[in-house]
């Protein structure tokens, strides 16, 4: 029986990246829908819920993506409420690659350094990847600080993380060398999740920090978020710090993404969201 993936995207055009990854992971057919909303998603889900029964339900699965994580989250809520009893399909939630990217970064960084009970800083952590990474570090027992250039944005992100995951993180304004140095004081790990081409930690700052053990950067566009970072770094030790660049993190991200798609078709009641995707990333790292 063919493995059919229903790709639900809140953007006008469904992501080609997500479709190609799904095919590479073994999906036989990807049904792509853009402009998916909470109002029109139910009939799409019915199409995979009611066409196969019993053990065959597992051969139809759902992927929720798009660039707007809030809207995608609302769609996920409706999808979950549409299911009943054993009439359901496995679902993966990864809009903007937020879960797979964050999980890959956190898995690699926590493998390089034990963060339980330790301070970890997620710089420019107000976006989808930053918020998910902050939550995942907190799941691993870290004392997490989320920064933004404006305290109000960092505070809003902390409140969103609390509302979504029930986890506490500390907001902090880091807008220059002095405030960034203060944010990093006592931290064992720092992850940059800012906009492409924006440097968040200058090289003299991280080199002079005695507590930092691992630095991660998801930015692939020069200049890097961590000055002196190379996107190809995948565990190289520079000045006593383990360095993880976007390609080093991205390689694991793609493996995690494909593995989640593969496992969607093993059962009909799986949900791959932040915590379960992090567990897969730790397994593969």
From TrEMBL:
Residues 16-96 form the Methylene-tetrahydromethanopterin dehydrogenase N-terminal domain. Gene3D superfamilies: Methylene-tetrahydromethanopterin dehydrogenase, N-terminal domain (3.40.50.10280), NAD(P)-binding Rossmann-like Domain (3.40.50.720). One of its GO terms (molecular function) is oxidoreductase activity. It comes from the Bacteria. Keywords: Oxidoreductase. The keyword Oxidoreductase applies. The keyword Oxidoreductase applies. CDD domains: NAD_bind_H4MPT_DH. This is Methylene-tetrahydromethanopterin dehydrogenase N-terminal domain-containing protein.
């Amino acid at each position: 029986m063919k493995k059919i993936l229903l790709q639900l995207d809140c953007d006008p055009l469904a992501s080609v990246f997500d479709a190609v990854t799904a095919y590479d992971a073994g999906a036989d057919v990807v049904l792509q829908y853009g402009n998916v909303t909470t109002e029109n998603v139910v009939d799409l889900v019915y199409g995979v819920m009611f066409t196969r029964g019993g053990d065959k339900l597992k051969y139809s699965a759902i992927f929720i993506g798009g660039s707007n994580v809030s809207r995608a989250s609302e769609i996920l809520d409706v999808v979950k409420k549409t299911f009943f009893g054993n009439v359901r399909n496995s679902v993966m939630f990864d809009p903007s690659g937020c879960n797979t990217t964050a999980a890959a970064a956190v898995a690699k960084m926590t493998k390089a350094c034990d963060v339980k009970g330790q301070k970890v800083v997620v710089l420019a952590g107000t976006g989808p990847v930053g918020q998910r990474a902050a939550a995942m570090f907190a799941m691993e027992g870290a004392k997490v600080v989320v920064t933004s250039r404006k305290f109000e944005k960092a505070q809003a992100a902390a409140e969103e993380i609390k509302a979504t995951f029930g986890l506490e993180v500390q907001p902090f304004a880091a807008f220059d060398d002095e405030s960034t140095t203060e944010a990093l004081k006592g931290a064992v790990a720092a992850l940059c999740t800012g906009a492409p081409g924006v440097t968040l930690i200058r090289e003299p700052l991280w080199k002079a920090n005695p507590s930092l053990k691992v630095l991660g950067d998801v930015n692939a566009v020069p200049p890097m978020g961590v000055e002196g970072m190379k996107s190809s770094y995948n565990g190289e030790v520079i000045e006593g710090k383990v360095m993880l660049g976007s390609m080093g993190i991205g390689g694991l991200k793609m493996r995690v993404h494909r593995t989640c798609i593969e496992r969607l078709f093993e059962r009909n009641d799986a949900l791959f969201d932040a915590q379960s995707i992090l567990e897969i990333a730790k397994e593969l790292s």
